[in-house]
Amino acid sequence: MTYLEMILIIGGISLDIFAAMEIEGAMLAEVKRKSLLTACTLVTVLQLVFFFGGYFVCHELAEYGQIERALWVGQVIAICVFALLGVRLLVKAIKREFINETCGEITVSKYIKIILVTSVYTLIAGCACGFMGVNWFFMLFVIILCSVLVVLGGIYTGYHFGFQAKTIAYVIGAILLWGAGVEILIENFVLV
What we know:
Elements: H1 3-26, H2 33-63, H3 70-95, H4 108-132, H5 136-161, H6 166-190
């Protein structure tokens, strides 16, 4: 898996978090630094735990020969997950859920609920990357960077402009994930 594919994967998954944070940011009366730091920390830690939980389990299974053709299995899982998550994001973009606008504070429990849904996909993406043996140190850097950027970007975009751009974030996320899936498909199955 190339560095570009790894960035596309985490970027696509993270745009779901961006949209959720944008909605929360639109409902804040003011952005407090302590709450922002808490959000960045929680999102980053949860993304790291889920990704590397899946990564290390699947990497060990592949390393010790428990899974035959682990690279192929990882590639198929990656393509399926990226396609399905892309469809999920596109459906969310088209659906345009009703949002009850109320000013208030975002709480830790809201952060956890927002991230847990996305973390399932992060876990599965970690499994696919573990089977393929990607550079875990690079993924660590990308996850930290993307998590912080999507939380800050989402909160401030929502705070300043409302939550209307979430549809664009969903569509861009879907395109990034489909792009990564198509690149893996072409690179490993078509051009072989």
